[in-house]
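Why run this: before we spend reagent on co-expression, it is cheaper to look at a predicted model of the complex and decide which construct boundaries make sense. The entries below are exactly what would go into the expression plan.
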Amino acid sequence: MESNSRPPAGTDFDTARQFARQLRVDSIRSSTSAGSGHPTSSMSAADVLAVLVGRHLRYDWDRPHSDANDHLIFSKGHASPLLYSIYKGVGVVSDEELMTGYRRFGSRLEGHPTPVLPWVDVATGSLGQGLPVGVGVALAGKHLDRIPYRVWVLCGDSETAEGSIWEALDKASYYQLSNLIAIVDVNRLGQRGPTELGWDIDAYTRRAEAFGARVLTVDGHDLAEIDDALTTAADGGGAKPTVILARTVKGRGFSEVEDHEGWHGKPFPKDMAVRAIAELGGESNLVVRGPLPDAAAAPAITPSEPSTSSFMPRYSPGDKIATRKAYGEALTALGDQYPNVVALDGEVSNSTYAEQFAKAYPGRYFEMFIAEQQLVASAVGFSVRHYIPFASTFAAFFTRAYDFIRMAAVSQANVRLVGSHAGVEIGADGPSQMALEDLAMMRAVQGSTVLYPSDATSTAALVRAMADTSGVSYLRTTRGAYPVLYDEDDTFPVGGSKVLRSGSADAVTLIGAGVTVHHCLAAADRLAQDGIQARVIDLYSVKPADSRTLHAAVAATQGRLVVAEDHHPEGGLGSAVTDALLSEGAQTLRLAHLAVRELPGSGTTEELLAAAGIDVRHIESAARALLAEG
Amino acid sequence: MESNSRPPAGTDFDTARQFARQLRVDSIRSSTSAGSGHPTSSMSAADVLAVLVGRHLRYDWDRPHSDANDHLIFSKGHASPLLYSIYKGVGVVSDEELMTGYRRFGSRLEGHPTPVLPWVDVATGSLGQGLPVGVGVALAGKHLDRIPYRVWVLCGDSETAEGSIWEALDKASYYQLSNLIAIVDVNRLGQRGPTELGWDIDAYTRRAEAFGARVLTVDGHDLAEIDDALTTAADGGGAKPTVILARTVKGRGFSEVEDHEGWHGKPFPKDMAVRAIAELGGESNLVVRGPLPDAAAAPAITPSEPSTSSFMPRYSPGDKIATRKAYGEALTALGDQYPNVVALDGEVSNSTYAEQFAKAYPGRYFEMFIAEQQLVASAVGFSVRHYIPFASTFAAFFTRAYDFIRMAAVSQANVRLVGSHAGVEIGADGPSQMALEDLAMMRAVQGSTVLYPSDATSTAALVRAMADTSGVSYLRTTRGAYPVLYDEDDTFPVGGSKVLRSGSADAVTLIGAGVTVHHCLAAADRLAQDGIQARVIDLYSVKPADSRTLHAAVAATQGRLVVAEDHHPEGGLGSAVTDALLSEGAQTLRLAHLAVRELPGSGTTEELLAAAGIDVRHIESAARALLAEG
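The model came back. Tokens follow.
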């Protein structure tokens, strides 16, 4: 077999073999020294990675941020000993760092890879996510960057039980991502015993082929077979993603544990480690490098700043416009000025209004169909390639992708999520379509930004702000059309709020966001008829919340607050308000918290807001009750 | 073809044909009268459903809760006009209710089906969920009930883009669910245009077969072909689930919309409806019933009450035991006394300790491998069949199934979820494995119960309580071993708390749950050395929270509260405390809220708790700072 392979780089097979031994030895040494980690899951994939890194991966290790580099994603993030041993083997991490840093406090060599390391694109460790993100990176490479980098993803066999793996392969074949190569380390053993499919390579083959992949199968410990498969995979000439099924042995190289159950996620005790290293031929400090990319390759799309400061859509106060529609218009305007804005949607673009962008910039719109996990994962992949992705679906259906959203934050990805059709406001479709947990879910994400505008003008401003917002940002839009509240030149900084009514005689504060802002205003009008002055705050920035304005309102209205939200009572607007207020010193609060507490059904918007107790009448009543208490 | 089919019931083809017409007419009438709904998605599946309901579905419509009935799940829940028209057609819903109730406020005929209707097992409408839940029902039928009911699931073609569909088929074939029949209505058109695969029946066939299903393909408008396929599917003789691919036409029966884009989710205007109904032959009130089940069939497992009151494991104060281990022991003890307790896990049962139950009761343990969506969906399916399911995985990975958890609440399912390895406490594995959003996520679920015990004794008590808790309940367990705090005879009601330290001179209240309870106790000890008395509350019931005890603490300690939680600051323990306190009248609070605010890395438990600022030292400092403020 070896004679047939065309070595694409200088690392010969003898060196690759020695490199593979070193990767195993270092995986053992690092995990034993740390007292935790996954040596056996690293050892099964060592041969494949030695050949890949030594002979195929086009990567300038001294320029990890080069646009031309291939991408290497460990979807099986628990094989971090292998990944970090590769970093030692290519000379970018010292043996000392590997031995004293792995899994230690303050070290960048964390238990599972994260982008605190410059060679890591995305955090992995929640299985079934690396491949979907790889699809996003490959989408960018093939359809936007148009650079011939390849995206190599090392998958575990266990993680193919995750539906997200099949969403990923489905989209990879739909978008003809011949630049994507998934290598499945079929080592037969999961955490607690055999995997579902064991070494049934035929079953894996049927599934991957059925989902549109070109499948190559290899003995994952035969370097020449591996090399042939990688050579074929790297051709990029076809219109299909490639899946390499590597039949491997868990713990390969140390006879005491090879293919044994009970050794998942366990470092070897020191005496075993000594025997294993001896069996593998001892420690070494080989440095291996593979081929370099064409450093001149540059993305086809060059980011640029807007050519004008006033390019966003403008709306006239009083006009009735749904914020979801304003989103579509704002996104399209952004797309005109930012060549690197990209939009994705989950087969509801005519509802979210992402279709406006799709029509204007079809080359930068990616339909993810009904696959919300892949929707978010693709956005993360675009973020890896420094695009500005906006991903939209019904707000309720982002719950489908919560693990991906959580991990996007760990990945320090910059992704913008836009959920339409929030709350009971949607009306007749019923509770399955009503996002009533999304604010809680999004607020709890590390470093997130959560925005919920009440009108078209603020929506447009916030969409523009999101383009410059790092981390996970979320915009909640509303189904129905409501009057524009703000003047064209009003500003809406993230972390701000708008005081829509205020005066020196304010007796109570009404706080809303989105649809409830309109009900707060109407309630204030009713109260005013009885001479009760109510301050009204539009808390469009739910996270971070404007604690200064909230504190001022508390001081002005003797702590009397009515918070009305189209969301369950836990973790949403009410929590945003109380968290902001209670973060500084003693506070005396008289809070009426109106939220959706019972399971809603169908009905009109008005019926459902009333039934939930969050409409104008309930806000007015709650304010009067607070005042009656004193 | 018709001559070859063996009619299993009295409804002949002519009647079935007329029934199908009526289903179309009523789908149109109901949605047009409501002004919203999905007539065209109903019309494509009307022929298949007419034959199924008229000739194959074994269902006693007058006894919807009969254990012997087949199950009919509309995974494409938006085809509710079709489902409700069937209910009219079998005579359990009047034409008047259909015409005046559909999608109206207060009606049980909601926009998408929910179990407020006695014939609906689970709420659908979030696509890709009905089939996974059907897998759970079929698991119960085949492996527990051992009654020959069949589970018929109507799927849309668009929803096959959801990975959860493939998780479902994978488990259906793994568990040889020959009692499961998925009917895919391949009508080629999604919401905003063509589906990914269109009418490529071969592509669907390859995928379903690769995932282990027996595939039957039919012209979905040829009643005889349909009948043959349903007859074959119903044999239950094989060891595979069946997938029927029905090639259909969206809007079938009304030439103006047949196979036209732009008609998804749109009722026909009245004039069009008139023309459509005329083309379909006019209104009718046919009543059709199919075969009855064997009413004598009874589940193999009969629920029974515990034979003794003291069967739970008992622990001695001071012993160090991880709450995750106590979970495994408590669950096993429950399993001994409750023959209808069932356990499921996502391939981490040796970490969650569900393996203890699996070893003791292998027939009632179901391995879901790494497929958390299916894990929760299966639990919902077991709930449909009145089992008491406990589903466990790492707490972080329940984020993967949030949409299913949310929908379980809409389904009024009784499911118990148990998440281990919560928070930074887990140590070296790093942030991908750390649940830091789970309390927020679970609290925001409608009607949920959220529990987070600090020791083995309370864990065992709460596991027992969960068996009798309706709705979605969640138990958060901890990786490390900590001392047992409570006496064997202490009680831990849901909604309660434990005051571990209190006295007449309490100056500050320290509130924790789980691991932070131990740090609160240690902080109280340190403060006591300086003569500062601290009240310590173990808020093991995060939702509902014990507002009485919290109010008493606020009153006793002048509003000084330190809340420490191993969770992000949003929506977790801190919110539970402030929500409980602010729900009644004016409150003056001095709150120090210690939570995980920055992105953690790897390290030891002690290092990470300290770095997050939630350990004994920070609790002590926060208490002193509150006291210094006055």
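Chain B has 22 helices and 19 strands. The first helix of chain B runs from residue 13 to 34. Bring this page to Monday's planning discussion.
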